[in-house]
Amino acid sequence: MTRDQPPFGEALRAELGVPVESVVLESSPRSRVWRVELESGVPVVVKQLVAGPEAADRYAREVAALRIAGRAQVAVAPRVLGVQPGQLVVVLEHLEHRPPAEDWIVGYAESLAHLHATARASDAGGSLPRWSAPGEADVAAFLRLAGALEVPAGDEVAVELRALVERLEEAPGAALLHGDPCPGNDLHTPDGVRFIDFEQASLGSGLMELAYLRIGFPTCWCVTRASDALLARAESAYLSAWRDATGTEPGEDVEAALVDACAGWVLRGDALVQRAERGVTDQLARVVEEDWEWGTVTARQRLAHRLGVVAESACGRGPLKRTAELCGRMRAAALTRWPDLAPVPVRRP
């Protein structure tokens, strides 16, 4: 087998058939992906996690999440057709992708809710970890950023942010979280949106990922912003789909939870860089000294957008009142210091 040929052992051949043709598909550096045609004429997708310190964990998460997602009454992910654990291989149903519609985030939000709703209490303690909130180090880095932008934070903000971290850590819910539900990890099929690449899946509050629509897909190369009207439609679609799937409400105070989630993403400096660069340095300190491109925007554009979202969402009310005011001042200072920063794009590529 060469790099251009998928690993497809005897057990998979006995179960699924013999592969007769394969094409390498685009993927992250952490995996290899092929479109494979079987002798029956059926196309499948073969994904292999690249060996490394975290590869086995990522593989276990992916397979576990895909199997949980397979419970959905409305399909939300490709079906698992076979596995080859010794080589970190999973064989998936092949799905046809078509260009997303202008209002794609509405269907996306519906499918995201159905995905989140597939988890059960019995899934806790398995291959999927609990969702991890930002921590004290993130708070400290954010307050240092405020100082670097010459915007006084004050003790009240520090108190608010530490309370925020506690609320996020204790947020109720055991939904199946994708971990990186971004453009590129969503397939827009004739039958609806399907999600792929579950290597970072976890269990937690689904509202943490619904917040992606407000904050601009923070873990992704493709940052976009939706109009207020379109965002309202998408969030409403999520809530309706969640109720239909579970017969429950997603939380006691959805708006407060979304504001908290957005503020949490502002604290995470590692959300300014792609995954391979995370956990290496203080990215909030770095962004003061240099800017860099990742996908549709630069790091400073990401930062300015997120500051603006929190400043507007939490403005004048709730437990993040002072934090919202600080974010507004920080955004103004950033735009003064870097006047050429453009808004993030409205349309995805």
Structural class: alpha+beta
Count, helices? 12
For the secondary structure, the number of strands is 11
Rg, rounded, reads: 21 Å
Mean pLDDT: 94
Looking at the chains present, what oligomeric state does this protein adopt? single chain
**How do the helices and strands follow one another from N- to C-terminus?**
HEEEHEEHHHEEEEHHHHHEEHH
Structure description:
With 349 residues, the protein is α+β, with helices and mostly antiparallel strands. 41% of the residues lie in helices and 14% in strands. The chain has twelve helices and eleven strands. The strands form four sheets. The protein has a five-stranded antiparallel β-sheet, with helices on both faces. A hairpin with a 5-residue loop joins β1 (19-25) and β2 (31-38). The two termini are 35 Å apart. The mean pLDDT is 94.
Keywords:
14% strand, 349 residues, two-stranded antiparallel ribbon, single chain, alpha+beta
Q: What secondary-structure arrangement, pairings included, does this model have?
A:
Blueprint: H1 10-16, E1 19-25, E2 31-38, E3 43-49, H2 55-69, E4 80-84, E5 89-93, H3 104-116, H4 136-148, H5 155-169, E6 175-177, E7 186-189, E8 192-195, E9 202-204, H6 207-210, H7 212-215, H8 228-246, H9 254-267, H10 283-289, E10 293-294, E11 297-298, H11 299-313, H12 321-337
Antiparallel strand pairs: 1-2, 2-3, 3-5, 4-5, 6-9, 7-8, 10-11
Helix pairs in contact: 3-8, 5-9, 5-12, 9-11, 11-12
Describe the structure concisely for a colleague.
With 349 residues, the chain is an alpha+beta fold. Helices cover 41% and strands 14% of the residues.
